[in-house]
Amino acid sequence: MPFRNLLFFISFLVSGLIFSQENAQQKKSYTATRIESKPVIDGVPGEELWQNIPVATDFVMFEPGNGNPSRSTHPTEVKIAYTDKALYVAAYLFDSNPAQIRREFAQRDNIPTVDYFIIDINTYNDGENQTRFYVTAAGTIADARMKKNNEDFAYNVVWDAKVSIDGKGWYVEMEIPYSALRFSDKEEQLWSMQLGRKINHLNESYVWNYINKSIGVSTHYNGLLKGIRDIDAPVRLSFYPYVSGEVDHFDGETSTAFNAGMDFKYGINDAFTLDATLIPDFGQTPYDEVELNLGPFEQTFGENRAFFTEGTELFTKGDLFYSRRIGDTPIGFNAVQDAKLNDEEIVDNPETTNLLNALKISGRTDSGLGIGFFNAITEVQKARLYNPVTGEAREVVTEPFANYNILVLDQQFDQKSSVSLINTNVTREGHFRDANVTGFLFDVYTPASAFNLSGEAKMSRVNLPNSNKMGFASLLSFERSKGRFRYGLSHEFANETYDINDMGLNFTNNYNNFYWETSYRIFEPKGIFNEYNIRLMGNHQRRYDPDMSVTTNFGTSFFAMTRDRFAFGGSANYSTPFRDFFEPRKDNTYIEYPENAAAEAWISSDYRKRIAVDSRLSYNKYLKTTHQQLRFSFSPRFRVSNKLKLIYNFGWMKEENRESFVTLLPKNVIFGTRDMQSVENALQGSYNFNTREAISLSFRNFWSSATFSEDNFSRLLNSGGLEPVVYEVTENNDPDANFNIWNLDLSYQWRFAPGSEMILLYRNSIFKQDNLSALAYTESLENLFNQPARHNLSLRIVYYLDYNNIKNIFKG
């Protein structure tokens, strides 16, 4: 779809849609009380200063019902006060049977199946920029940024809370410093807020301001928080200096390392914050869940580095930022093999790029304009080659000095809608590769939140040494966001030169796809169910150039949860023949896989019980062939006590007779018939001494093997079919694979002060990959243990320093 036609289509839909208006739900309001001295945060809000402060009460049910009054046996009362430095909250969570209060211990940002209290604060009252603060009955705290109904727990600020319990229920006291919030410089603030409570043994949730689950999203239903006036945003300057040391032993060699550096946050003004990391250290990030990858696309992993997960909601708009690109494998890593001269050997070829420093600036003005700027710099990486015949050594640059940056402008309006502009840029020194991507986004709700229209238009430009290429992609989506019965339509487009992979992530381009779905759900208990959701969906996928059909899919899914918290569901899907343009690894070439049918079923039992189980079974069959795949997973969890929990996961997969890529020859693309199987065993456990100290164990063993049938190879035809061919397998080109990896992490974590922590981590890892695919799992495991193991012991200490506290020390 040409760009001008896309803009016309958007304008037509926006101007042509006529939506019914509904009376807005009356919002509650609460007026906070100024106090002269702060309360003692001990979880016992019985001090005199709390006595004359107004009460926020009359909570209504959020789940499983929709607006029912709270039980008379479980009333909730909340009081809010403030000083010049912080907001203070006292919550009285009464319970007629305190012995039933769930109090499982956990560390920060981990919310197990417990009773908890939440307060959501939106300092801009814009329906979008909301921070959620959790406190559990055991005293665990958590904070998250809200994005519609999603929670981002990577967000972390420094605040404090304590709890207590007696014969009438449990109580919370919270202190939220203004340094943890961003707000405008006004004489009187007008914030919005939501208060909530989870009573786990009743399986019920209550909120202060009614949320109509059948319309829009929960962040649109905040009440108002008034009365906070004559406060000044403090100097928001904090430092996180760290020191770390490690000892690494592998294959008879031992090495040591010591690092020191610092992160810091600075409030540029009342709305904007600068975050920076100087001399970053990511040595204690968790292992990636690596698997045997024989497909055409790279394996992707989640982000484990805190700097790239905290406060990045602006930068992730449009899905143009895949943070693992920064510090990723050098772009010339694979080219080193081709760069070798006669007799040369590769002595060293770094697999990652070192990050020198990074910073981000983000915030939002009074008018609802969000501005974000991100910048990171990586250093030069070089491979070392040596010629043993001549004795000459040389270096090859695999990743030059590079700069990554993002600029985002996000204008919000009507408390639930937004338009955004985002630009990402990668500039590499020298004649390598530069890239730039610009995206325009909009997300618009009708006044009554009954309908949503969203869209994206993105332009990419890649500058290569001898050529440039520009690409375009778009997305347009319309959906009904109200009521039990909902529906939606969307369209995705990308031309053949669209490429965002320098800073983003896209596996495919050159598509012209159409999607549709409809669903029916309930919002109040019905029969044996607390909730259920039935969906029907489909899509038609096309190649843009040349225009041709790729496949058409039809499917259905079902989700349900009973009143006893037993969840189950499943899905079924049918696809017409599929033209795969990526498996052959050759431009404008495809293999056609036959039509297939797939089904899946899963269960998840009640996590409130000491023993709970998650399990999933799926089957995929390519019709009129012997190609099929079966997957099974089983994950029991054991709550030994309120301090000790264990989770085991077993996964198994078997695929038979798949026509798979083998190699690319000058004139032919060779395919073979492949069988593949895998087994995964994983164990996670934690013992929590309290909500600040814990010992954690994480273990994973993943084995996978792929076996190609002997003398059963084919060459790919222009029609997408296969024709038998003679292909000689030798030791150097054997496509069989046997992959086995073992990772173990054992850590002790101690949060010894707000924002400060110490982590002692022991790691053990073993890896082996060869072509001995005939080995059974136990035989492969035995071979794995014959490999040298890597042992790593590291200690990292981070200390939080607030400028407002430091300056008082210096004054003293």
UniProtKB/TrEMBL annotation:
Signal peptide: 1-20
Gene3D superfamilies the record matches: 2.60.40.1190
Keywords: Signal
DUF5916 domain boundaries: 234-810
UniProt KW Electron transport keyword: no
InterPro entries on file: DUF5916 (IPR045670)
A UniProt-annotated Pfam family: DUF5916
Protein name from the UniProt record: DUF5916 domain-containing protein
Upper lineage: Bacteria, Pseudomonadati, Bacteroidota, Flavobacteriia, Flavobacteriales
